[in-house]
């Protein structure tokens, strides 16, 4: 059924389809009958799926990655689709429009996306205000970044502002220094600037006293030496884990026409699956399993998710797979994991 709907939707601009589809989901949520039907269709409750990390009990290990609900607009609606958690953002201290359109591209031959959104969002205060209102009970992560106009030398201030704004309304944080779509951002993955950011956020967390887990989202394009630095940095700063991985700047092995495959931005989806798994396995092995990992990259099916879990991940996230597989992706993965 969804394959037919997808053919129709894929004829339209992907960013326009995104907002149209979520508007339809909002309408369905407002109706008590359709809301109840969605919950029955997409929620998989099984104790074998439950995971507990950082004192947080996840009903299942399948989450929605940051980038889909940047401004915490659709927490209620997404909670009906069977996700174990939803990560909002990337949220910056100040609102910003992001990069010029078009900035989102489908590579259907590769089951992939290229995006150069550029952290388009309404700002941390707007997201915090939405999350402060009563909403469905679901674990929410806050993915935070710096504003485009903020020089790297002042990035620490931006991460601190976003962290403080969301502190009371999210369950965990993800520090995003790995998007390829904000000029110079990936330079913050270097050990020295990253250490300053993470140590400061840990200090603020200790002061505020709620012990929010802090994770670092890394690029799949890091070398083994850089990954070794990340491992030592996690140990030194005592952050709670890593999200592996963000989108890639690589275009190796793509089947799509160069006119679309050559678009600038971060590539996500099936082509990223193998490399993302390699990074998860490397981090898990080299750290002797001491680092908690949320895996993302090319997860479409239960087999894809199980691959990441077997490599050492504790939780997984989907994004591009959600676009291609449809609203049943979380439930289908959960059913497959439960039966494996």
TrEMBL record:
<dbReference type="InterPro" id="IPR001295">
    <property type="entry name" value="Dihydroorotate_DH_CS"/>
</dbReference>
<dbReference type="Pfam" id="PF01180">
    <property type="entry name" value="DHO_dh"/>
</dbReference>
<keyword id="KW-1003">Cell membrane</keyword>
<feature type="binding site">
    <location>
        <position position="143"/>
    </location>
    <ligand>
        <name>FMN</name>
    </ligand>
</feature>
<protein>
    <recommendedName>
        <fullName>Dihydroorotate dehydrogenase (quinone)</fullName>
        <ecNumber>1.3.5.2</ecNumber>
    </recommendedName>
</protein>
<dbReference type="InterPro" id="IPR050074">
    <property type="entry name" value="DHO_dehydrogenase"/>
</dbReference>
<dbReference type="InterPro" id="IPR013785">
    <property type="entry name" value="Aldolase_TIM"/>
</dbReference>
<feature type="binding site">
    <location>
        <begin position="246"/>
        <end position="247"/>
    </location>
    <ligand>
        <name>substrate</name>
    </ligand>
</feature>
<feature type="binding site">
    <location>
        <position position="70"/>
    </location>
    <ligand>
        <name>substrate</name>
    </ligand>
</feature>
<feature type="binding site">
    <location>
        <position position="245"/>
    </location>
    <ligand>
        <name>FMN</name>
    </ligand>
</feature>
<feature type="binding site">
    <location>
        <position position="181"/>
    </location>
    <ligand>
        <name>substrate</name>
    </ligand>
</feature>
<dbReference type="InterPro" id="IPR005720">
    <property type="entry name" value="Dihydroorotate_DH_cat"/>
</dbReference>
<comment type="function">
    <text>Catalyzes the conversion of dihydroorotate to orotate with quinone as electron acceptor.</text>
</comment>
<feature type="binding site">
    <location>
        <begin position="319"/>
        <end position="320"/>
    </location>
    <ligand>
        <name>FMN</name>
    </ligand>
</feature>
<feature type="domain" description="Dihydroorotate dehydrogenase catalytic">
    <location>
        <begin position="49"/>
        <end position="337"/>
    </location>
</feature>
<keyword id="KW-0472">Membrane</keyword>
<keyword id="KW-0560">Oxidoreductase</keyword>
<feature type="binding site">
    <location>
        <position position="298"/>
    </location>
    <ligand>
        <name>FMN</name>
    </ligand>
</feature>
<keyword id="KW-0665">Pyrimidine biosynthesis</keyword>
<feature type="binding site">
    <location>
        <position position="269"/>
    </location>
    <ligand>
        <name>FMN</name>
    </ligand>
</feature>
<comment type="subunit">
    <text>Monomer.</text>
</comment>
<keyword id="KW-0285">Flavoprotein</keyword>
<feature type="binding site">
    <location>
        <begin position="115"/>
        <end position="119"/>
    </location>
    <ligand>
        <name>substrate</name>
    </ligand>
</feature>
<feature type="binding site">
    <location>
        <begin position="66"/>
        <end position="70"/>
    </location>
    <ligand>
        <name>FMN</name>
    </ligand>
</feature>
<feature type="binding site">
    <location>
        <position position="90"/>
    </location>
    <ligand>
        <name>FMN</name>
    </ligand>
</feature>
<feature type="active site" description="Nucleophile">
    <location>
        <position position="179"/>
    </location>
</feature>
<dbReference type="InterPro" id="IPR005719">
    <property type="entry name" value="Dihydroorotate_DH_2"/>
</dbReference>
<feature type="binding site">
    <location>
        <position position="217"/>
    </location>
    <ligand>
        <name>FMN</name>
    </ligand>
</feature>
<comment type="pathway">
    <text>Pyrimidine metabolism; UMP biosynthesis via de novo pathway; orotate from (S)-dihydroorotate (quinone route): step 1/1.</text>
</comment>
<feature type="binding site">
    <location>
        <position position="176"/>
    </location>
    <ligand>
        <name>FMN</name>
    </ligand>
</feature>
<comment type="similarity">
    <text>Belongs to the dihydroorotate dehydrogenase family. Type 2 subfamily.</text>
</comment>
<feature type="binding site">
    <location>
        <position position="176"/>
    </location>
    <ligand>
        <name>substrate</name>
    </ligand>
</feature>
<dbReference type="InterPro" id="IPR012135">
    <property type="entry name" value="Dihydroorotate_DH_1_2"/>
</dbReference>
<keyword id="KW-0288">FMN</keyword>
């Amino acid at each position: 059924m969804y394959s037919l709907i997808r053919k129709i939707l894929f004829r339209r601009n992907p960013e326009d389809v995104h907002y149209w589809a979520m508007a339809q989901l909002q309408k369905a949520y407002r109706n008590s009958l359709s809301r109840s039907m969605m919950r029955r269709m997409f929620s998989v409750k099984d104790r074998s799926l439950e995971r507990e990390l950082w004192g947080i009990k996840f009903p299942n290990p399948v989450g929605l990655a940051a980038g889909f609900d940047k401004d915490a607009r659709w927490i209620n609606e997404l909670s009906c689709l069977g996700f174990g958690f939803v990560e909002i953002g990337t949220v910056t201290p100040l609102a910003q429009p992001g990069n010029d359109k078009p900035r989102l591209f489908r590579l259907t031959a590769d089951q992939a996306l290229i995006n150069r959104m550029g952290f388009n969002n309404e700002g941390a205060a707007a997201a915090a205000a939405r999350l402060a209102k009563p909403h469905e009970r679901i674990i929410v992560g806050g993915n935070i970044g710096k504003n485009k106009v903020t020089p790297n030398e002042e990035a620490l201030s931006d991460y601190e502002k976003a962290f403080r704004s969301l502190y009371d309304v999210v369950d965990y944080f993800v520090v995003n220094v790995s998007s390829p779509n904000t000029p110079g951002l990936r330079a913050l993955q270097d050990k020295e600037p990253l250490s300053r950011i993470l140590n400061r956020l840990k200090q603020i967390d200790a002061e505020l006293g709620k012990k929010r887990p802090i994770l670092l989202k890394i690029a799949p394009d890091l070398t083994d030496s850089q990954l070794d630095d990340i491992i030592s940095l996690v140990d030194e700063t005592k952050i709670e884990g890593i999200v592996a991985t963000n989108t890639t700047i690589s275009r190796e092995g793509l089947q799509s026409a160069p006119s679309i495959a050559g678009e600038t931005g971060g590539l996500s989806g099936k082509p990223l699956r193998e490399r993302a798994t390699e990074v998860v396995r490397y981090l898990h092995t080299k750290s002797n399993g001491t680092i908690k990992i949320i895996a993302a990259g090319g997860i479409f099916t239960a087999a894809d998710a199980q691959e990441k879990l077997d490599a050492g991940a504790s939780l997984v996230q989907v994004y591009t797979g959600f676009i291609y597989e449809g609203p049943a992706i979380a439930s289908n993965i959960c059913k497959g994991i439960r039966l494996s």
